Amino acid sequence: MSTSSNSCFVGIDVSKNSLEIALRPDDQHWSVDYDLLHIPPLVSKLKALAAERIIVEATGGVETLLVTHLAAASLPVVVVNPRQARDFARASGKLAKTDRVDALVLARFGEALKPDLRPLPTDEARKFEALLVRRRQIVEMIVSEKNRLSQPGHPNPIARDINEHIKWMEKRLKKCDTDLQKALEQSEVWRVHDNLLRGVPGIGSVTSRTLLAALPELGKLTNKQIASLVGVAPYSQQSGRWRGQSRIRGGRGDVRAVLYMATLTATRCNPVIRAFYQRLIGAGKKKKVALVACMRKLLVILNAMIKDQTAWGEHQKSAQISDAHA
């Protein structure tokens, strides 16, 4: 087993009860139980390997315990999107799917692509994001119940039950908003950033809080990097003489969803985004293309504001100047 520095790549496939570990370039593998008893010895073993990357696939939060321990030990852990890992597996001709194969694919993924190390969410951020996810679920349930209520033919007892359920969920929604506000107030940094973000016309509380929880890289990356991370950077489509329309893909869907809604509002009430949108439409751009460009511009502005710790008014003039040369 190789232990030389920067020569080892580790892939860990996480399941509810076990961890499958694979190494590259040695192609060694072993498994351990996934519990608090076996994680510390695993962390010690991985530290001795001096791995360049430890790749873990996001598995709906099941990986959190492992990733937290790895990060606490200052190990170079990277949590990757499952779709990226599967695309890499298919491109590598690995069609079988077992825990052992998945672990080896993750190790090869790290060896071949060497994904960038990014700051992992803190416990505070994970709790905040969990509250945001729960809020979104409650809103979706309220909408579903209201849709059921709008359908004709419900007997009175059913309609009454639906109304009572809606009222109960609306109370839970208020409680969730209160919990989010309390969590926000407990962090001075988040409170300052929330004030900066919500000072931008078009950015409301839900958008601001989603950015704080689900995009901790905001203000720490370049404009191109943050746009690519969120999934609003266009990718060229071309082959030989054929030139297709550039498209966006990948990224963080939850962030992109709230950014889309914020941008719709900004095209009406934010002077910088509104002028940029109207200029693109006037130049013959399709509305959807213009809106995506505005999403990217708004994100870049927010990224600069957090990076420089400056308010909207200070950025508005420079944004308008840069728009004139866009």
List the helices and strands and how they pair.
Elements: E1 9-14, E2 18-24, E3 29-33, H1 39-49, E4 53-57, H2 64-72, E5 77-80, H3 82-91, H4 99-113, H5 123-150, H6 156-185, H7 188-198, H8 205-214, H9 223-230, E6 235-239, E7 242-247, H10 253-269, H11 271-282, H12 287-308, H13 312-324
Parallel strand pairs: 1-4, 4-5
Antiparallel strand pairs: 1-2, 2-3, 6-7
Task: Count every helix, treating DSSP H or I runs of 4 or more residues as helices.
Answer: 13
Strand line-up of the largest beta sheet: 3-2-1-4-5
For the record, the count of structural domains works out to 3
Question: How would you spell out the order of helices and strands?
Answer: EEEHEHEHHHHHHHEEHHHH
Mean pLDDT: 86
Instruction: Please tell me what the overall shape is.
Output: globular
Low-confidence stretches: 1-5, 236-240
Helix proportion: 55-70%
Q: What structural class results from the helix and strand content?
A: alpha/beta
Q: What would you note in describing this structure?
A:
With about 325 residues, the chain is of the alpha/beta class. The protein has 3 domains: about 10-115, Nucleotidyltransferase, domain 5 (2-Layer Sandwich), CATH 3.30.420; about 125-185; about 205-240 and about 245-325, no CATH class. The chain contains 13 helices and 7 strands. The strands form 2 sheets. A 5-stranded mixed beta sheet has the order 3-2-1-4-5. Strands 6-7 form a two-stranded antiparallel sheet. Helix 5 packs across helix 8 (about 205-215), helix 8 runs antiparallel to helix 10 (about 255-270) and helix 11 (about 270-280) runs antiparallel to helix 12.
